[in-house]
Design goal:
The complex is a heterodimer of chains A (501) and B (160).
Chain A (H helix, E strand, L loop, with lengths): L6 H21 L1 H9 L3 H24 L8 H25 L6 H12 L15 H16 L1 H8 L7 H7 L10 H29 L4 H16 L17 H15 L2 H8 L5 H4 L1 H23 L6 H16 L9 H22 L12 H19 L9 E4 L1 E4 L2 H26 L5 H12 L15 H16 L2 H15 L3
Antiparallel strand pairs in A: 1-2
Helix pairs in contact in A: 1-3, 1-4, 1-7, 2-3, 2-6, 3-4, 4-5, 4-8, 4-21, 5-6, 5-20, 6-7, 6-10, 7-9, 9-10, 9-11, 10-11, 11-15, 14-15, 14-16, 14-17, 15-16, 16-19, 17-18, 18-19, 18-20
Chain B lengths: L1 H18 L3 E5 L1 H6 L1 H4 L3 E15 L2 E7 L4 E7 H4 L10 E2 L2 E9 L10 E11 L2 E2 L6 H20 L5
Parallel strand pairs in B: 1-2, 4-7
Antiparallel strand pairs in B: 2-3, 2-6, 3-4, 5-8, 6-7
Classes of the chains: A mainly alpha (501), B alpha+beta (160).
């Protein structure tokens, strides 16, 4: 029997949702300050409006739903799932007011793409966009990549027992340090250190490439944020191609890799254990999947009769592959070139890399390397069992920070998430194909949205049908939260509708 | 004698024609991106707004020209671009520049980029500063919501 949630349950969810909304409203002070600094008065007014509306909603919600009770796991999951939707609606307000989007839906698409660190964009005339609006687009990636809830954990939920539950709901289930608050702070520490180093390196490269210093620093901050959080927005409509700069591209490759690595792995490497880089199941799986995806892409590319030298091959083929595999979505080609010049087989290689994604507890989306590695180990164990005598006791281990004995629960959870992703990829592909796109194009775009990558083969554009925009928003949301929180929210809705008192 | 003269002249004309660079005429960025294979290696004329910055690399520079659909990277001698005064951004409309040069689908010099190596660049129209309009209506909305927010904070000050 399903029980109808009590009024207290709604109050708990509402209260924490209100607090997260207040946090979002306060963050809008950053683009407001930037707008003031650059004398962008119209955008400054846009941020005043958006900030006031967001804070008003957050204060009223948190105040009306005041409760002294802490969150249960179910509540935390619902808060995690709903906070992304609420954040999307409020963050879309300044984008819509900027006049660079055809509709409020388009700005919601952009906001969700930012929070989910996807990078698909429906912006018009990006190159004429105000600095403050451009920074806000990138800041949504930083907020989403770091985790809306990680931010709240760090600043708003000090010491609450339910904090870790929301953290898990946001698909970050590793405690790097014994205390979840310290884990959240470690994630911030690593991010800030790399931000200083990465922005400095990108700025030097951009200035050396002829960009004026002010513009170079602004772009470098934005590009770092989107690369580190494996997002993919850029301040220029040409993406990374705009910079025409090999060293700039190489620095983004390094940042994309760092962003796709598990924060737990960052921690052990930072504390001196560099051997972990070679032993970890995620890094070994990444190496193998990179080799396979690169081989398929290169084969497909060669089959199209386009001959590239090693340098060009690296900057075109390898770059898009790294960008896709790490879930970033930076590009040095125009979207339609995938269809016109790369062809279906090369697109399949990139699609495969996008579908796998990066590490757990990183800013990437998709199935993720650890789950793929676990399923591979389970299959290998089963094959071994078939070949050995029945009485043999077989223990399969995998190495992730430490040696772990492979158990059924690891395999079951990995399989559930993997099949959920495959279902999400498939549904998006089928819906896209209804609009007349080929299988390779539809799969490429659908996987890019659901795996939070952001590479596009040209389907995502402001003129895209409304159904596709909504489909991709849902895919980005579900893909980023890795389903569990959404299943919990779905269960809550069913209980509210059909449950008994 | 006359027949061999005509055939000889025809051959000379034929070889002159085939050795001349083909000229695809004025193209849009949409054509450059979507028909890149057909236009690869041809001389094209392309016109667009100079965007963001002219990136000086010594003797040569990069400029990005946007024609309303895509932005295309143009590589040419820095001297040809020194007349550009306005580049497009939030506060400026950039100079409208027309370039003529060789289009590359995958440039062998620039890491396989899709670009134009221009031999000519002409400023077709000057850019200008864009006047910013701040809506008084929006200022009133912002003020109204801030008053409401302060009121809400006051009411719920012990409950947040």
């Amino acid at each position: 029997m399903i029980l109808k949630p009590a009024a207290e349950d709604y109050r708990i969810i509402g209260h924490y949702l209100g607090k997260i909304t207040i946090g979002l409203g306060l963050i809008m002070a950053v683009p407001l300050a930037v707008a003031s600094g650059y004398s962008e008065f119209a955008p400054a007014v846009d941020y005043l409006i958006s900030m006031a509306i967001t804070l008003f909603f957050g204060v009223v919600l948190a105040g009306v739903c005041r409760t002294g009770k802490d969150l249960s796991t179910g509540h935390a999951m619902c808060v995690a799932a709903l906070s992304w939707i609420v954040a999307m609606f409020f963050s879309a307000i300044p984008l819509y007011l900027s006049g660079h989007y055809r509709s409020y839906l388009d700005s919601c698409f952009e906001a969700m793409s930012g929070f989910a660190t996807t990078g698909l964009s429906l912006v018009n005339n990006l190159d004429h966009m105000a600095y403050s609006h451009n920074l806000w687009r990138h800041l949504t990636m930083f907020i989403g990549g770091q985790g809306i809830v990680v931010i709240a954990l760090t600043f708003l939920f000090r010491g609450t027992a339910g904090a870790f539950r929301i953290y898990v709901g946001e698909a970050r289930d590793e405690k790097i340090l014994p205390n979840v608050i310290n884990t959240a702070r470690f994630i911030w520490f690593v991010s800030v250190v790399y931000m200083i180093l990465g922005t400095a390196a990108l700025s030097i490269s951009a200035v050396a490439g002829g960009l004026p210093a002010g513009k170079a620093i602004f772009d470098s901050i934005c590009v770092f944020i989107a690369a580190w959080d494996t997002g993919g927005f850029t301040p220029q409509s040409q993406s990374i191609l705009f910079y025409h700069n090999f060293s700039f591209e190489m620095i983004t490759v390094v940042i994309m890799f760092l962003g796709a690595i598990n924060f737990a792995l960052h921690y052990v490497v930072w504390t001196g254990n560099r051997r972990e880089l070679y032993l970890n199941i995620e890094t070994t799986t990444l190496f193998i999947s990179m080799v396979v995806a690169l081989s398929i892409t290169a084969w497909g590319f060669a089959g199209n009769g386009i001959c590239l030298g090693p340098g060009a091959f690296f900057r075109k083929v390898f770059y898009q592959l790294i960008s896709g595999h790490t879930g970033t979505g930076y590009s040095t080609v125009y979207p339609v070139q995938f269809v016109n010049e790369w062809g279906p087989l090369a697109m399949l290689g990139i699609t495969m890399a996008m579908a796998i994604g990066g590490s757990m507890c990183s800013t990437t989306g998709a199935i993720k390397l650890l789950r793929l590695g676990i399923i591979y180990k389970a299959v290998r164990q089963d094959i071994k069992k078939l070949l050995l005598p029945e009485s043999t006791v077989l223990v399969q281990k995998f190495h992730h920070i430490r040696d772990i004995i492979l158990q059924d629960r690891h395999v079951r959870l990995s399989a559930i998430i993997m099949f959920s992703y495959m279902g999400l990829y498939l549904v998006g592909t089928i819906i896209t194909m209804f609009y007349g796109y080929s299988l390779s194009e539809a799969a490429f775009e659908s996987v890019s949205a659901a795996a939070n990558v952001g590479l596009s083969c040209g389907i995502t554009s402001p003129s895209m049908p409304v159904v596709l925009k909504v489909t991709y928003i849902i895919q980005m949301w579900a893909g980023r939260l890795e389903f569990i929180a959404i299943f919990a929210l779905g269960g809550m809705i069913v209980a509210a509708l059909k449950g008994k008192k | 004698m006359r027949v061999s003269y005509i055939i000889g002249t025809a051959f000379v004309v034929f070889f002159i024609l085939i050795s001349m660079p083909s000229h695809a005429g004025t193209v849009t960025s949409r054509e450059l991106v979507e028909a890149a294979r057909e236009l690869d290696g041809k001389t094209v004329t392309y016109r667009g707004e100079a965007m963001t910055a002219v990136m000086n690399r010594g003797e040569y520079s990069w400029v990005s020209l946007k024609d309303g659909y895509n932005t295309i990277g143009v590589w040419c001698k820095s001297d040809l671009l020194k007349e550009i005064r306005w580049v497009g951004g939030y506060k400026n409309k950039g100079d409208m520049v027309e370039v003529t040069g060789t289009f590359h689908m995958a440039c062998p010099v620039h890491g396989g980029e899709l670009d134009i190596h221009a031999d000519e660049a002409i400023i077709m129209a000057r850019g200008f500063p864009i006047e910013e309009h701040v809506s008084p209506y929006r200022i009133r909305i912002a003020a109204a919501f801030f008053i409401l927010t302060l009121l809400a904070i006051f009411i719920f000050r012990d409950r947040i």
